[in-house]
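Researcher: I'd like a structural prediction for the single chain below. Treat it as a standalone chain; there are no partners to consider.
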Amino acid sequence: MSIIQDVIAKVKQIDPDQHEFHQAVEEVLETLEPTTKRHPEFVKANIYERIVEPERTIIFRVPWEDDKGNVHVNRGFRIQFNNAIGPFKGGLRFHPSVNLSILKFLGFEQIFKNSLTSLPMGGSKGGSDFDSKGKSDREVMRFCQSFMRELFRHVGAECDVPAGDIGVGGREIGYMFGYDKKIRNEHTGVFTGKGLAYGGSLIRPEATGYGCVYFAAEMLATRGLDFKNKIVAISGAGNVAQYAVEKVNQMGGRVISLCDSSATIVDEKGIDAKKLDYVLKLKNVKRGRIKEYADKYNVLCVEGKNIWESIKEQGIKVDIALPCATQNEIDGACAKAMVKNGCICVSEGANMPSNPDAVKIFQDNNVLYGPGKAANAGGVATSGLEMSQNSLKLSWTREEVDARLLIIMKTIHKACVETAEAYGRKGDYVAGANIAGFTKVANAMLAYGIV
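Model: Treating it as a single chain, here is the predicted structure.
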């Protein structure tokens, strides 16, 4: 058995119930097999086993009081995975599904995603099983403040810089940053995704969605194609999906779908700027359900299904797919249906939204497939730019941040293509992203000795 298979087996033995983490480790490490021969120094220093073990795992109690005076308890986490190339960096997720396995998978992926941006950021992730749905602003505030009473001692501008993720938007970042500022008695860039009024960056809310589309455009260009007149399916209805719609519209594509946990809407006429403005208000202000879009515009609504299941069951045509919701939302059966219905490009705006069967089907059918660690790196890249602006005490213009984001996404695409080709895997964006991201981190770990 190879060193890679030994490491995978050990991960499964030590943490037998962490299935999402196993999936992420296998997906990355199996593509790193060629590096064991090209870099025997990595094998000697046991980099492969060291990189799958977090530097530290922090679990803590989060007690909070609701508006009726009832006390609740949630569990908080921070997984500080690897800081070889810079401070730990990764989002916070508040959702009932949050557990150690999901956060370890996300933190592990974050190592390589951050490395690909070329910015000095390590990988981490955190969050809680708290559900903000149905909670008042004051309840969310009390939860966030309780969460920060423990987390503040483990994060900092040069140590670990959290950001948002599912369930953590501008409201939650504001509450947490404000409380952290109060506790520390200092105004430092300990969070990214902050509001513009207190140190945030222009383009940050849009960055992941924009970057996902920029990456897809780069992949399409390798075949002389672009977004013009293409039918685009997008999953999710949060920030990533919303701004992916905006950028696709700007590039001439026609987005036909959005979905949340309750339903999918399919608008064959396209979600234009006016309809998108309605979605922004519906989801960000009213905090409503996407089904309300179907009621307003009289379009197809499929309850209890995501867009990929809807494509499978209803034969919806799609040229480009941008999965922007959550992990493992596309399975093998959905992937087959997507290919059958014309899909030529998949650019992942979420983390690991395609399961292993789906990835194999995309690759076997010559679909341009951009994995999340490359295609959705725009969000953390712009977080890195926010950190730079905070350190310099400067604020860049919208145009300047967007231009830097575009350059970073082009650079990531180039690194994936060139690395894949150098290792005999031409056109394999998964191998290219994994090897390029890993090699930089591994060399840094090697330089530090055994720490």
